[in-house]
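Bench notes, afternoon.
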Amino acid sequence: MKTKTKIFLAVFASFALLSIIIGISMAGVESSNFQFPSSFSKQVGLVKIEGIINESNHIVKKINGFRDDDNIAAVLLRIDSPGGAVAPSQEIYQAVKNCAVKKPTIVSMGAVAASGGYYIASGATRIFANGGTLTGSIGVIMEFPRYNKLLEKIGVSIEILAAGKLKDAGSPFRELNQNEREYFDNLLKDTHKQFIDDVCDGRSMEFENVKLLAEGQIFTGNQAHSNGLIDTLGTFDDAKNYILETCELPETTVFLEKSKKEKYDFMEEFFLKTPIKNLFSGFHKSGIYYICESLL
């Protein structure tokens, strides 16, 4: 055998032997403190709900993914939103409520968690808020613009043809009549009652007690706590620590923002996690909203 080949084999054998010795030594050191990689440990799902709520699909998919993931011990929602459209708020609320049936689902309120933001929170297992958090605003608002007077000044008129006396109710080109006002008032009352009913269900409160708190008024975290709208005065870290203690999880537990069952969508990530998301976040279409406009 050539000399160079012998030298190569000797060096290779030395490295192999050294690796085996080190491996055996490491296996014997503090084996009782060994922890499996985080992928084998229980984790906590983290869902952030921020800004005006105009759609629900992304958030609902995330919550459902964590709910169905057996590796997720609990779900933490961080809400910083003044609310938004009615149906998306209701869909996220239902996803939160369904998740809470299966595993602890905790809410931590940021600076604002009002109207639709509070609606969503009310379905959770437990709600944390800071003393200065602005929340509540259990009410409904409906608005649409009026262009008729402006158009009159510039000599423009709009002719509307409709089948059904309420088909063009709310048109920006004319004033509301009394029948239309009553019609919209009934819509608002029904939507308002749905809000109150769901808060009663989620918070296990009596209808009359919630109704007193449902005139659209804003509460601080302290006031909300006194009125039973939240459970605990505490920070985001307090909510995290509560989950760790309740679920008996180690301090090294990972708070995961994306479920392993959630598919990556480049366009969705691009629009939801870049400044582009906020270009039109301050605008919303005419309609009925669970939103606190004074907190926009």
